[in-house]
């Protein structure tokens, strides 16, 4: 039987979908393109923004239309956020628990033809263990080390749909990464809903896990997908300084560059704390790439406060800014805040911040012209190969190098969004 899976949202969802694919493959199912005519459709949903909700609904309805006789499974955050509103036409609903049981649930449905709902009032405190050995069509492998969030930022629905923080056991993480490295993956990406919170439920912490991972034989690159500024402790920074295997890139969400908005967002720092920590990181790794997330148009954000955000982002010299117009999420405190911002103003501010991001990106890229740098090749097209460096520069090089190959390239120029490389030496 043919299975098509569509994944929306974050890297955690990507990991979970890869795990689901591996489960179906082990049972003898054929994984095919979601656009094909499938016997089973799985939509791994997202609810972080209104756009995510719309796309989740769209893909569910698309699957139902493609093959009315297919088994349609919707799972994940959008399903969890809409427990009280059954989704018409879906045969199996799974929230953020029991994804590891998906094949059994599908086979139960195929046998009995009775719709199944696996939703709970409490997701519990136990990490639902998942492990992958291979990631089809990818040169880097994600490893989910943590789930849940308890930050309760005033704009965010995720703590309500992902539950309390819970962590994968250290040994399970080490075993999984070791297996992936042995299977040829040169870059491992640590991911979670609140990655830096890792281990607090296990009596350990993120730094302790990092110390063990960086000693895994033949691990070439370790990338941290995203981490809060408050979780970059002195111990974590010491490891960052000592072990070059950790990628020269950190994604550290800012969300706003004014203390007034940060406070309303219920973020756990102010701009001075954020700036001081960034400066400390750059004393350890002067050329590190630091990218960030910023929300524009948060309730009460005046033009003056938005200008503060623009100025702060410019001062921080981020290598990239991911810009999100504020999206009202029903059930969050911010949805009831006064002074909601007009949609056209949000779009205008988003355009300004994206323009700044483009400038900052190019400024950062220019620093590396004439530099020799390692590139992990990911794809090739029209006589060129494309990949990323440790500091997450997008590289374009002439020639057809195979996916997963590590090469050393000399960057000769910038042709945004790529750094163009000329001289190549295969390294691994």
Report on this model:
With about 425 residues, this protein is an alpha/beta fold. The protein folds into four domains: about 1-120, Rossmann fold; about 125-245, Transcription Regulator spoIIAA, CATH 3.30.750; about 250-365, Transcription Regulator spoIIAA, CATH 3.30.750; about 370-425, OB fold (Dihydrolipoamide Acetyltransferase, E2P) (Beta Barrel). It is about 35% helix and about 25% strand. The chain has twelve helices and 18 strands. It has helices at about 10-25, 50-65, 75-80, 100-110, 160, 170-180, 205-215, 235-240, 260-265, 270-285, 305-315, 345-365, and strands spanning about 1-5, 30, 40-45, 70-75, 90-95, 115-120, 140-145, 165, 185-190, 220-225, 250, 290-295, 320-325, 370-380, 385-390, 395-400, 405-415, 420-425. The strands form four sheets. Strands 2-1-3-4-5-6 form a six-stranded parallel β-sheet, with helices on both faces. The protein has a five-stranded mixed beta barrel with strand order 14-15-16-18-17. The radius of gyration is 22 Å and the shape is globular. It starts with a strand and ends with a strand. The model has no long low-confidence stretch (mean pLDDT about 95).
